[in-house]
Amino acid sequence: MSHFSLKDTEEYYLALSDQPKKFDADSPVTNVFFDDTNGEVFTVRSGGVTGVTVNGMDESKCTSFRMEDRGPIISIKFSPDHKILAIQRNHDNQNAIVEFVNFQDLAPTNIEYCHTCKWKNAKILGFVWPKVNEIAFITDHGIELLQVLPEKKQLKNLKSTSFSGAWFSWCSQSNTVLLAGNNGVLLQPFSLNNSTITKLQKLELEASKPVMERDVCVIRLCDATWCAIFRHSVSTASSPGPTEVWLMPLSSPNGYHHTHVLKTGLVGRFAVHVVDELIVVHHQSSKTSQLFDIMEESKVENNTAIHIPIVAGNSMKPAKDGDQLCPMYSGNWVVFQPDYIIDARLGCLWRIRLIPSGLAHSVVKDEIPKIVAVLLRRTEGRDTIYRMMNQLVTEAGTYLVELTKAFDEIHLVYRKWADLEMARNTAGQTVDTSRSPHRFPVIISQAEMCSHVLQSHIDDKYIVQVVTAYVRSLGRRALAAQHAAAELAVRALVARGAAGRLRALLRRGALADARPLACQLLSLGRLQPAAAQLALDMLARLHAKEEIIEVLLSWDETISAVGVARQAGGTTWNTLSPRKLLAAAQQYAEQHSEPTAFIAIYHMLVNRNEKLRGSPHFLKGEQCDSYVEYYKRLMSEQ
Amino acid sequence: MIDFKTKISSFFIFNSSLGPKEGEELKRILFFHPNQVTTDARKMQVGLCEAVVKFMSTFSSEPCDALQTQTNRYIFYQPEKNFWMVLVVRIPYTTKALSAIGESRGEVIEPTIMYDLLVSAYKMFRMFMGPFQNIPIEDIYTTCEEFFTPYILSKNITNDISDVIQGIHYLPLDKNSFFKVICFIDLLEINYPDFKCISFVYNDQLIWNALSKNDMLTLYQYLVQKLLPTQVAKEIQGDAVAAAQRHGRFISPPEGIRNKEDLQKLVKVYLMCEDDTETKQYYLIVYRTLSATVCFIVDVNTNLQIETFRSLDAFIGPQLSTIASTISEQCTIQALQNAQITSDTKFVYFNRLNLAFKSSVNRPINKLIPSTTLKPEVLSIIAGMHSDKKSLGNYGEIIVKIPDEYWITGKTSNEREFYVIIQEKNATLKEISDEVKRICEAQMKGVFFYPI
Q: What sequence ranges are listed for the domain Mic1 (chain A) (predicted)?
């Protein structure tokens, strides 16, 4: 099977941040915490006495300060506006308590206070900041949502819900908490939006296959919230099957209703990330990361869609810390949503990113259209698509079929987008596009395709076939070939001696009627009468009477030009310059020795004058004196 | 009735320069039909024509067109220098003796139709054999004999409008199906660069053409008048190849291409491609599946391998049958739509630029049933208007009324011809003119006609 390889690309489709965010590595005197809501690493030295450093991707939010050591810290997190720091410590046999410190300009003030959980004997599993001045305590008894009033050094209960859970998973993008109850058989999601707690549809798993904390995470993908679960095959089986990732929708306002099953084909330790609406499944032992696209076309059976990786699994691009190569897929890595990786031993924080061109590095010939479709759904996909299309066009001798299908994919997206726009425009504001299941990160218009891809290939060997395939694809998606595409098609076909094909296409209506196209054809008409014939038909269909009149005048068909003008009637006929017509008529009459042609037109114009102004004479400004003389001469000769 | 079978008196080709001396007159005659005519009679006929042609040349630089005697009409056509093709047709005439026994006066054949017959005969000859002058003297007599005898005998010209105006039936296809055809051709030409697809015909309707205008008509006529009818007859009989028909096969050469020896039987043709400037010699290969026929040409200097044809067969077969079924579905839908809007209007349309021919009088599908809907007088009027391009000019309209209440309107505009036949006893010129305008607008949507 032959492979397509995009030139000047590397095999890697995933990379870590160019430079890691450095922090003090984990050590006996240093503790490292990560807050995935703000994406910040807290390094606490000697319980905070010798300093706490906060590092994040956002330099402006990085800070360091000192604090008292009041016991081992379990969790430490800033509020989203960095004005309150919340700390949970491990106090044996004490009520569940969280301490707060007000901050100003990223420096601690001396205003400190604390809050005790409402349930006696409850154990705080963790706390989260759904929004500024709102904190939720997640305990084994339930969730308590509180409003923080920093000035009053108080917290006010907003809402609480009881649920007996052992552990939880938090998604900061959607403010969703997933609590695991009943030994990991029952998963109960809660939404913490709008200052309240909303219970969502629970997920019940087979009692024989409960899940563990490390196998569950809540992710945000395609504007929906999902529970991602690693389903390892039963270990008692003699030959353990590979692990699957199940994506179950928790809240889907936009049409994702069924479970997606991602087939990894591997066993071992996994971690999952979301990058540019792609699910990344990292596999530690093989040191590879697979990509899954749940937006791809898939067959839904039993309310389940099955996916396989969009390209063969590959490693991430090796990361460097300074000049030092970092160990990849290290056992010290900790993965956080949506795209963070921490190596606590090295003291590095990375985000992962997609390298779209890596997807096209080695593609099985048949899968080229699929890759184009995948790239069309990526925010950074456009440039790679252009590069792929350019290369496919250059190698059209090998890839004509795949190129045609790639055009189809591009136009399918365009069609869907156009339909949606149309629906939105006709329905006014009632249709909310954000609720649609389709996102359109890359829409390639005809003008863009022409200027970025086709234009530069105008001298290619197979440009005629490529342009034909392009126009065909437009037709398949019921898109009219616009001016840019039509103009290019005409130019390419004529330049390559395929004018016959052009005419055949025009006769079948493959290029939409348009005045510029008609003018282009007219200019060919001198060499190819058939092109002129088609141009005139096209103008007639467009009701472009003025243009037809001009064309006929230029063809020395004065009588017909006047005929068309009179058919058009109204202003077209009434405003036509008499001097122009008489000049043309005189020329015609003299060249063809047919003075009657001039006389006929003269009479028509005189009639017109009479109708318009009640007088047969021409106006002074119309400068027709010489023609009046000519008329008199002709009449006297007869 | 324009019936050539009974009206053709003789058909011959001569070149005076081949036997300039006395006693060598027979050498000058390249071909003579009918062949039962004695050599003396042949010499006399040819001699007369030679004399007339020579005599006329002193008066005009234009070659002589025709000669009419009381009983015969001679039509001359000089396709190449010194080569003359002559068609002699009997003119119906009456003598007292004949009318006494009831022999009625027949119709006069339009000279233009005879002339067209000569031209198309020559073009067909040139397509397969090349120009006369390129054929060696020693071969030319047999070559002509072998070509023209079957040609003349098989030429079946009936009382049909499509013989008066020689055009091409195009299949009206929607653009997506049309693109399927083109993209199939593109893919094929990319994968088999030696092969060029020159035409794609469905039943007897053209979909794709890559030849120059003149050669396109000749090849089209060869396909729909000669090759395909015999092929269809074979298919109906259901001979040995029937089973393989779904997947298609090569029909030219007629036995197909199965082994190396068959490659020697490939037909050679002289053709000029569209957007090309010279005529070249090619192998002509025709492939057919279901009702779709595809013609390819390959440069004669190409070294052909039987494997190429096998792989070509495997490539085209399945794809072509899919395309053929798509087109067939389209045609069924169209036929249903057309059936609903049957109108009594009789019109004929012809576009000189792409030779498109359309007629409500004789739907191409019903070609097997000879049309009797047009009276010979009407045909003759249309033939006259069609050939007399001067009287209508670039654009114009002529309305002719003949006895039997027939009104024939001929319209030209922008290189198109449009004829409407109306049978209406008490009509005025104005009414006919309006009716023609209405029919023209209804039938020729999206076509620009010069205002009259």
A: 378-620
